């Protein structure tokens, strides 16, 4: 399993597949480890919580090695109702130094039969 993660502005976007959604619904966590130079790695862990949102089910924690996101299982189970559209859960978390970071967990729509092609150009070393 490899959650697709992107940082855009003050937002953390986590894109998951249908198989990853089923893993979360079953109560198991998703774990992404991204290798970095000098034997380091950045980790993102997404796990379901049995607690409701109003009882602390949403949590965001971090340290220099990664991010841990906990989402209420009841909210995770709301995803997957359609196959044609992306579905998402969005939550804002306050930062200690002021401001906020937005976390978006998005379920990708089913792949269409006619997927687009991608042309990748890699410059030659000179």
Write the layout of secondary structure elements.
Layout: E1 4-8, E2 11-16, H1 18-25, E3 30-36, E4 40-49, E5 59-63, E6 66-72, H2 73-76, E7 87-94, E8 100-107
Describe the 3D structure:
This protein is mainly beta and 126 residues long. It has one domain. It is built from two helices and eight strands. The chain is globular.
Strand order of the largest sheet: 1-2-8-7
Main β sheet profile: 4 strands, mixed
Count of helical regions: 2
Beginning-to-end CA distance, first to last residue? 37 Å
Helix-strand pattern: EEHEEEEHEE
Mean of pLDDT:
83
Tell me roughly what share of residues is in helical segments.
under 10%
**Total of domains:** 1
Low-confidence stretches: none
Strand content: 35-45%
Tell me the total number of β-strands: 8
- Which structural class best describes the helix and strand composition? mainly beta
**In one word, what is the shape?**
globular
What Rg, in angstroms, do the CA atoms define? 17 Å
List keywords for this structure.
126 residues; mainly beta; 4-stranded mixed β-sheet; 10% helix; 44% strand; globular
What is the gist of this entry?
The protein has helices at 18-25, 73-76; strands spanning 4-8, 11-16, 30-36, 40-49, 59-63, 66-72, 87-94, 100-107.
């Amino acid at each position: 399993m490899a959650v697709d993660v992107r940082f855009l502005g003050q937002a953390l976007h986590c894109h998951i597949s249908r198989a990853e959604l089923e893993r979360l619904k079953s109560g198991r966590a998703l774990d992404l480890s991204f290798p970095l130079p000098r034997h380091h790695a950045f980790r993102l862990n997404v796990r379901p919580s049995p607690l409701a949102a109003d009882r602390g089910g949403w949590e965001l924690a971090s340290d220099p090695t990664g991010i841990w996101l906990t989402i209420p299982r009841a909210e995770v189970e709301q995803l997957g109702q359609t196959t044609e559209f992306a579905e998402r859960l969005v939550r804002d978390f306050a930062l200690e130094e002021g401001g906020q970071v937005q976390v978006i967990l998005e379920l990708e729509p089913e792949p269409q039969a006619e997927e687009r092609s991608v042309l990748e150009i890699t410059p030659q070393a000179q």
